[in-house]
Amino acid sequence: MLGAGLALILTTTAGAFGDAGHRVIGRIAEMHLTNTRALQEVRGILRPGESLADASVWADTIRSATYEDEDTPRFRLAHPAHETYHYTNVPFQKDRYDPALPGAHFTDIVQMTRECIRVLRGSSQAFTRREALRLLAHFAGDIHQPLHVGNAFVSAEGPLRFVVPEGPVRWRSSLGGNALRYGPDGNFNLHSYWDSHAVNLVMRKEDPAAYAARLVKELGVPASWRTPGDPEGWPEAWATEALPLAREAYEGISVMEYLTPQAGGRTGHRWRIAQPAVYDALARQRVPVQLAKGGYRLAATLQAIWP
Ligand SMILES: [Zn+2]
Question: How many angstroms is it from 59 CA to the middle of ligand 1?
Answer without folding.
Answer: 6
